[in-house]
Every structure is written in C-alpha cells, then in structure tokens.
Specification:
mainly alpha, Recoverin, domain 1, 0% strand
C-alpha cells in the first residue's frame, strides 16, 4: 500500500504539464485513484501482508494452494478499484478504450508511453476471456508485473 502512495506522489512530481489545468486534472485522478484503492482495500479486508511484491507475482507463489485466499482477496481488491475507476464494468469486462485514455493522461509526458500502451493491450487481450472478475483482475496485474520485469531486464541488457 505504501508503494501505491509513493507511486502517486512520484506521478505528481514527474508530470509537470504545461498548464495548471492539466496538473489539477492529474492530481485529481491520482487522489481519486488512491482513495478508491484504499476504500477497496478495506472493503476486501486486504492487509499489507496480503499484497504480493513484483517478484512474487513473477513466481508461482500466487498459484500455490495455501495462497488461494490471499490471491482471491487481492484480485477482488483490484476488481473493486477498476470498477470504481470505470475501468471494468459489472460483467467483468475491461473498458479497454478507457484504459488507454488513462495511460495517455498518466504517462503522456513519458517517452516510453508506447511501451505502457503495448503492455496494456497485451495484458487486456490475455485476460479477455476470463469471466470471474477477481481472477481476471489478478491475472491482469500478474501479466503487467511480468511485462514490466521483462522490460526492465531488456533495458538493463541494452
């Protein structure tokens, strides 16, 4: 959870849009996102100990039988936040165009914005046929985490 708040702060600092209207818009998105994530964390009874790290998601830890409930809770937490942000509907369909709008808003000034769009498209396609919202949301997160780790490895080796 602390990493999410840190992420939000970094985004505020990193994005220095040319107009104060754009800065207010981004700050509002970040504040709303943080509020929704925190509310969904409480709603789904997710503790900081339940949250998998990036490396954990790249391993088989979430698929181990003893972690089934932890994985389900985390997936439901993500689904709740996606719904509150209008990025997933009640039928567990991901609002793909809206995801790309959010990427544009949050990563508009980053030169690697195309990479974020590519990862988003790949992962949304990968989970499209999963019908259970908690499973779909967790799978989306795992896909993105693995893609980020792969991208990191690529950048470090080139």
């Amino acid at each position: 959870m602390k990493s999410l708040v840190l992420y939000a702060c970094i985004l505020i600092i990193a994005f220095q849009p040319s107009s104060s209207i754009e800065l207010k818009k981004i700050k509002n998105i970040i504040e709303t996102t943080v509020n929704d994530v925190e509310a969904c964390q409480a709603e789904n009874n997710v503790t900081d100990a339940d949250v998998y790290g990036l490396e954990d998601m790249g391993s088989d830890l979430p698929t181990q039988p003893e972690n089934e409930e932890r994985t389900r809770k985390m997936g439901c937490w993500i689904a709740c936040a996606l719904k509150r942000q209008n990025l997933m509907d009640e039928d567990s369909n991901i609002n793909e165009p809206q995801i790309h709008v959010r990427i544009n808003l949050e990563y508009g000034d980053f030169p690697d914005q195309a990479i974020v769009h590519r990862i988003g498209s790949k992962c949304m396609k990968e989970v499209r046929d999963i019908t259970q919202e908690c499973e779909k949301s967790f799978s989306l997160l795992v896909c993105a985490a693995k893609a980020v780790m792969e991208e990191r490895k690529y950048l470090l080796n080139h």
